[in-house]
Batch of 4 targets.
Target 1
Amino acid sequence: MGTVEENNKELIRRQYEHYNQLEFDAAHEYFSDEMFSEHFTREQVKESEMMLHNAFPDLTLTIVDIIAEGDKVAFIVNGKGTHTGGPYFGIPATGKEVNAQNTYIDRIVDNKIVEGNGTASMLLLLQQLGVMPTIEEAVKAYNESKKE
């Protein structure tokens, strides 16, 4: 039997294996009934995940790095997929591939995720979908507007 930290990291790895195998009910079993996030309820987290996988049917999630200390696990997830499914936050399928990293910190008690917080690379994702300008495009547009 490993340390608490090793067990908690393995729990996160198993959860993401379920996501990649489209076993959402199994992945959600890792959430405690009282699980909360700073911005979302447990049900909202599940709905958001379903929307993401419906919009990007070939989505693969890869844990790039994972660190645990006590009851907390911090990890970086790389998500890669093609927007060929349903709408994503109202954006119809673009057919474009996205590749972005998100960072999470989960708190685990009794082998259940009781708290989850993270940051998503939404700007990069929206730029890759073509609905937001890249930094270069925004700077160019700004500079051109100053020439008038």
Note: The mean pLDDT is 93.
Target 2
Amino acid sequence: MAALLKDALKPNLIQTLEHTGAIVHGGPFANIAHGCNSVRATKTALKLADVVVTEAGFGADLGAEKFLDIKCRKAGLKPDAIVLVATVRALKYNGGVSKDQLKEENLAALEKGIVNPEKHIENMMKYGVPVIVTLNSFITDTEAEHQFVKEFCEERGCEFALSQVWEKGGEGGIELAEKVLYTLEHKESNFAPIYPDEMGLENKIATIAREIYGAAGVTYAPAALKAIRKFEEMGFGSLPV
């Protein structure tokens, strides 16, 4: 096992099908961990490129929150922009459309379902970082659906772009890349975590529940409070959650 792990701390440099460099180290699984690649991988990439794109796993309420409140805070990273990825199909499904009807244009369902990315946009803007929304475009999408989402996002101060990478490879991502570069050049990032280090663990958890997940409050079981008190007594109260 030691022989297998001797190089595990070294990020893996790989090449994409279009000969672009990519670093793989750690995984974006926010349901079982913090949902980000390693700090070493990100800092290595920042030394090698002018612009670094990294993924925070799952929804912006899970992976992105942990990326911003845990990884960026502890590693001293300050993101310049956030890209939220959505699909018309998912938005219509959130709006009540059955799976066998998702190929049909349905602006009414889109209007209902778009409250989902609206909350994600609101969440990310709380961190003071400019937001770009991109639609992962499918051939069943219609121009009217794309236009509806575009106008919705721009009304909320977000740049918008279509992404067709799945179909066209790198060429399909040019529009998104241009919007990201425009944002980096013209919009200022004032990144700050959503809670301070000195806040108690109980209040940190409650802050995330209220601000990110929209909870009215948090009720702690006696066992949970006991565990929180123990962590704070052990000197862990200043750590992110």
Note: The chain is about 45% helix and 10% strand.
Target 3
Amino acid sequence: MADRSPPKEGQTYRIGAVSRLTGIPADTLRVWERRYHVTTPIRSDSGTRLYDSADVGRLTLIKRLVDRGDAISSVANLSLDALRERLRSADLIDRSPVARTRPWRLLVSGPYLADRLRVEASGAADFECLGFLSSREGIFSFDRDPAPDVLVLEYPGIHADQVGEVHRLLARSGATHCVLVYGFAGQGVLEQLVSDRLVARRSPIGMADLRRCCQAFRPVAPPPSDPLERLGVDLARPAPGPKFSASELAAIASARPSPCDCHRHLVDLISALYAFESYSRECAIREGAASAAQALVQACAAQARALLEEGLSRSLDLSEGDHCDVDTTDSAE
């Protein structure tokens, strides 16, 4: 897929800034581009990889969906609106107490356990085995598309200095839960390991034992939504334009003063935020591409300014109503 030409206008971001804004490691992003064409980078005259606001918005949503368990291949080429709708639908499903509708996806690691479960799993309709690995090292090269629901790990013996390794393997596998099958372990070590995401069982175990472990896992709550997203900050959307012109703001500020001068203070805040937005844009233009920090504060400033403008507009309407809402009963008499 050919690279795009630099846009005539609009903010662009280097891959490091995109990585920080979206949470996608730069190496992962390059793989997604090469394998799934998730984005088509813009190329500057010097050959630098650049991304626009729409790219950042899509990648942010894609990262959230992949973290929830969607295969990257199934979401890589969806439009921004389609990604938003898919995420909204996923949020509704996560909040609903529905029964499990698909088999548990398992990734099994361990020489004895892999051989045993490979035989037993063939007739288990409620399990989908993604792989049987003879060693734990295989987890690092395992293709996580789709990601497993449960990682089944075999340890002949588990010691305190291996607790961190177990958690790293679980994170690397992409699984939500882990069943640790061990031969020998101290009680203190097991207490460090066991959590809502991980259960430990003494070997040997079969598919019936594994089924009970999976059924006992409580649903993992979806990650809390980004506070900035809840406030309406969206890097993929153009910044909201000004609601008032400079002359309109000046007229409001110079109107008949009230005891607290709230409207004048709001005008000062709005003017300061608009000036800061302009300053931030000029910084990005001078540097050739916006940094992650610049993009974030500029979007936040624009949203804050739009919110204050809306507040000022409604406050002016209410003030007009207050002036009209006068009880003339006494004067009429």
Note: Strands lie at 12-14, 42-43, 49-52, 104-109, 127-133, 150-158, 177-185, 198-202.
Target 4
Amino acid sequence: MLRKIVIFGLMCLFFAAEAQAQGLGFGPQVGYHKSSDADEGSLLVGGALRMRLSAALGIEGSITYREEKYNDDLLTVKSWPVMVTGLFYPLPILYGAVGAGWYNVTFDYDQDQLGNFVEDQTSQEFGWHFGGGIELPFGETTKLAADIRYVFLNYEFDQIPGSEELQSDFYVLSVSLFWGL
């Protein structure tokens, strides 16, 4: 009988720890991003949903809006990335991140400078990212996360002569506030 009580107690502790480790949060995300050859960096805004699957693993889904300019404002690239990220927590508040994204992209060419020779385009691109961050408790059900990620994304810049060599990989510094659901 004592053995059953000990086993039952250990199981309760295990499942309580698992329930504590699991959590679902949703909230806003803001950040700064800069592509390798973009004219300058800019802000991004969006939302994210994050879930801790265990004490060491989590997953995040996010949708953001970002915009960047290339070739002295001849080209404005607007994108709405939908990203899925796997999270690994070596420590309770530190995490590594790796994932993939689907980017709905609009290439908006400056018709005043280029004339009507170049038409705007919309396409879908696929990219990979990795990075790391910190996730801090901010009250009982709220968490504040800050991270840096590097994104491998290969846009096809072929409409503007001389732009074929432009690099569109970028880094992003972001902050998210997650409210527990």
Note: The radius of gyration is 21 Å.
